[in-house]
Design a protein that fits this description.
Elements (H helix, E strand, L loop, with lengths): L1 H4 L4 E4 L8 H13 L3 E7 L7 H13 L5 E5 L8 H15 L5 E7 L3 H14 L6 E6 L5 H6 L17 E6 L4 E5 L12 E2 L5 H10 L1 H8 L1 H11 L11 H11 L2 H21 L4 E11 L2 E7 L6 E7 L2 E6 L5 E5 L5 E5 L6 E7 L3 E6 L4 E8 L2 E10 L4 E8 L2 E8 L5 E7 L5 E7 L5 E6 L4 E5 L4 E6 L4 E7 L5 E6 L4 E5 L4 E6 L12 E2 L3
Parallel strand pairs: 1-2, 2-3, 3-4, 4-5, 9-22, 9-26
Antiparallel strand pairs: 6-7, 7-8, 10-29, 10-30, 11-12, 12-13, 13-14, 15-16, 16-17, 17-18, 19-20, 20-21, 21-22, 23-24, 24-25, 25-26, 27-28, 28-29
The structure holds iron/sulfur cluster.
The site of iron/sulfur cluster has 14 residues, from helix 10.
Length: about 525
């Protein structure tokens, strides 16, 4: 699999209708599993099947091929679907994967919303309380006819996201052309980065890195390009909240020479930033790196949400949740959630306690560090004390007055770093994370730093004196996130996992596995 060796980690399927060629889905899914790749989503109309028998056998084969990503059903007023058939598809998928959260419904907003909402209500009511999420996406206002349905220009600019949703993907069109995203503007030649009939995955990725437009969109962002164009005297007809419409506008309406000039200025600043960071410290595996045998001492069941950072506070463990979830306070002895606190922002990543009953909280969506005071379940006060934009903060840990924060910076290949902040929240060091894919959360055991790797379910031990990864163990679940040290054991959880108390074996002792021991491989 060329994509795997070129650094691609996830496989998604969209169409047309991917289920029209189930053999292709199964074959690619099995190959992806064999190559230890992850799955994103398969997007379907949910009504492609001719009978319940075909539906059941097609989904079962895909399940057996190892597909464990999400399934998104496109359902709105623009899709003429039989509602009962959509509901039957969703119910069957949930029962085959035995995962109530496997399916979400994606609908296009911005036009015919009333009809869509009636349809969605009918689908949800036939699902009788199954927890299926609905996700709204913007109508593409591209093309003469569409600009008559919805005016894409308004009075508000889009929030920069470096194409977080549709971007950072190799999107293959029916003619074999490859784009760096599945956004609405992908019909534009400026976004073509190769063709699968002629180019290897490696070549396509390297072409993307050399395409000035693609490189600028994923590094300085569309807003960075916009500001540079405005300085060059370009006026836009208004503001727009739709990234891909703006991208299309840039590629079709802005004079080519001015766009090129703006991109060159943007790329100069990228190169400068990369050069200045060239001597930064790096977190890499040590020569003596080894696996740690572990034993699960205890497991506490957690309700499903989007579990993130853990914080040990006396006899309780706090479990932060992303996606607007509350933070749960779990009593360690009883294993019960005794109270919940509202989320300071939209996507709480991690929290640490500081003096004066205050907490520092990282928020992924806002890209900020908040100082928060809780009053029981409510937030008594909250102020933003640091803005990490354009990076997203994840894990946060306090070590002897220093604060370490994991940052993810989207671009062509996401950059992972740890920044060290002093007591005045001034950056004192920046460490590039080389050998941990998708680092999530951190804990400090008094000697070593522990970092969870969301991508490959490993938990890494890091010596912060030289930033060397000295050992790791394999978590007993996928998508590992939160981690905390209680003085004797590590506690870990995952996005959808329970809370595990883990005993670490001493590496100096001969590692003779006991029954129930995960050998860390
Ligand atoms: S804004 Fe452009 S590059 Fe980004 S996802 Fe949309 S079409 Fe793709």
């Amino acid at each position: 699999m060329q994509c795997k060796s070129a650094g691609i980690k996830r496989v998604s399927f969209t169409g047309g209708e991917p289920f029209l060629h189930p053999e292709f889905l199964n074959k690619i899914s099995a190959l992806a599993v064999k190559n230890k790749m992850l799955f994103g989503r398969v997007i379907t109309n949910g009504v492609w099947y001719k009978s319940d028998k075909i539906l059941n056998s097609t989904l079962t084969k895909l399940f057996k091929a190892g597909y464990d990503g999400d399934i998104c059903v496109s359902a709105d007023a623009f899709h003429a679907q039989n509602i009962k058939k959509v509901a039957a598809f969703i119910r069957r998928a949930i029962s085959v994967w035995r995962r109530p959260d496997i399916v979400s419904i994606v609908w296009v907003g911005g036009s015919r919303e009333k009809e869509t909402k009636v349809k969605l209500r009918k689908i949800l009511s036939s699902l009788k309380g199954l927890p299926v999420k609905t996700v709204k996406i913007a109508l593409s206002p591209i093309g003469e006819r569409m600009t008559r349905i919805t005016n894409p220009w308004g009075d508000k600019w889009f929030k920069e996201d470096y194409c977080k949703g549709p971007g950072n993907a190799l999107f293959v069109l029916p003619d074999g052309d490859v784009k760096p995203c599945c956004g609405y503007a992908t019909d534009q030649a400026g976004l073509t980065i190769g063709n699968i009939k002629n180019d290897s995955a490696k070549k396509i990725i390297s072409t993307a890195g050399r395409n000035d437009f693609v490189r600028a969109v994923f590094t300085v962002g569309l807003s960075g390009i916009r500001k540079r164009l405005e300085r060059l005297g370009i006026l836009f007809p208004g503001k727009t909240e739709n990234h891909c419409f703006f991208c299309h506008h840039l590629l079709t309406k802005v004079p080519k020479d001015l766009l090129k000039k703006a991109l060159l200025i943007a790329i100069f600043f990228i190169a400068l930033a990369l050069h200045t960071g060239a001597d930064a410290a790096e977190l890499k595996k040590s020569d003596g790196y080894q696996g740690i045998p572990i034993k699960v001492v205890r497991k506490i069941s957690l309700p499903k949400w989007y579990h993130e950072g853990l914080l040990i506070d006396g006899s309780s463990i706090w479990v932060a949740n992303g996606k607007k979830g509350n933070t749960w306070v779990v009593d360690i002895e009883s294993g019960k959630i005794t109270s919940e606190m509202e989320s300071p922002a939209g996507f709480t990543e991690a929290m640490v306690k500081i003096d004066g009953g205050k907490y520092l909280v990282t928020d992924w969506d806002d890209k900020k560090l908040y100082e928060v005071v809780f009053d029981g379940k409510k937030i008594a006060s909250k102020k933003s004390v640091l803005d990490f934009a354009p990076s997203h903060p994840a894990g946060l840990v306090s070590i002897d007055g220093r604060l370490l924060v994991i940052l993810w910076t989207r671009g062509l290949g996401t950059k992972f770093e740890i920044i060290e902040l002093d007591k005045d929240l001034k950056e004192t060091e920046r460490i590039a994370i080389k050998d941990i894919q998708e680092p999530a959360q951190m804990a400090w055991d008094g000697k070593n730093l522990w970092i969870t790797g969301w991508y490959n379910r490993r938990v890494y031990r890091v010596d912060p004196k030289n930033w060397e990864v000295t050992a790791s163990f394999r978590a007993p679940f996928t998508k590992v996130t939160g981690i905390a040290w209680d003085g004797k054991y590590l506690w870990v959880t995952g996005t959808y996992a329970d809370l595990y108390q883990i005993e670490l074996s001493k590496l100096s002792e001969p590692s003779k596995p006991e029954p129930g021991v995960n050998t860390g491989c």
